[in-house]
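Please supply some protein, with fold tokens.
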Amino acid sequence: MMMDNPTLHHPQIVQLTTTNPQNINNIQQQQQPHIKPPGEMENFLTIRLLMQGKEVGSIIGKRGDNIKAIREESGARINISDGTTPERIVTMVGTIDTLSKAFDMICQKFEDDLKQTCTTIPPITLRLVVPASQCGSIIGKGGAKIKEIRETTGASVQVASEMLPTSTERAVTISGKLESIESCFRQICQIMLESPPKGETVPYRPKMMISPVHAPIIFANGQAYQVQGQFAIPLPPNELNAYASLPQLGPGVGMPAAPLMPNGLPANRAQLQSQREITIANDLIGCIIGRGGQKISEIRQASGANIKIADLDEGSQDRHVTISGTPEQIQLAEFLIHSRIASEIGGILITH
């Protein structure tokens, strides 16, 4: 009886012996799925920036040329939320190196824009949206870490005391010269990478904070504007019929009367109080205060917000401005403050 020769029926079987280790390695590599090196994914970070529509338009560029170049040159994945709200979220994903490159290119674009409109370039200011559970690591014990960041980079760093609406995230505002905020951003990224968020994070999603019917109204050069977020939208004359008479509160500023409160807010929302802190370069603070405090008084009266300007800290070039009131009052006050700054430095905040 003849035995079947297995080599005749199974020509693809390779005999493996200890004298053929290369074949063993080849087979093992073919059987094992591709596994990324340990730590590769852990080095990836997600950074969210909160920007105004005009800022987003600047980094997108005509036909998307700018954002395409930033993506390609930095290697970071960048997504921008839809444009139906005054504020938009720019989400960047990558390593610290790729994120820093993308951030540097964004800041450079903003500085180039400022050079075209300003004789004296003001500090570049950007807002990061950071999970509240990570903000403690940025601040450090007794504020030691945030103080170190400020001193080593020369940038101004402010962590909001309250979370952004309907979220568990806070705004971290960084401001300063180009090199300063680039270095500051890298340090914050390193902290966030080393201290991941704890628990569930409810992301902030920008919304229209004021309904169109109850949005405050301001006047400039004979044109009525409706304040929505940090933007002033030109209001067609026929839509003014929805409002009562609009008394003047100061040069170029008017507010709606009944059925709204004197500060331009619906009566049922006038009791909701919150607070926001912004940072302004010391050499620009005078244009906000005005001669004898006239300008800051007008802003307080027009917005209904309480505004406090802190003294200049030793060694700092920035002043801290605390705005308290309802969300709408704070938004209007911040808008009027930035309008004053834009007017002083030759920039344009109101869009047509």
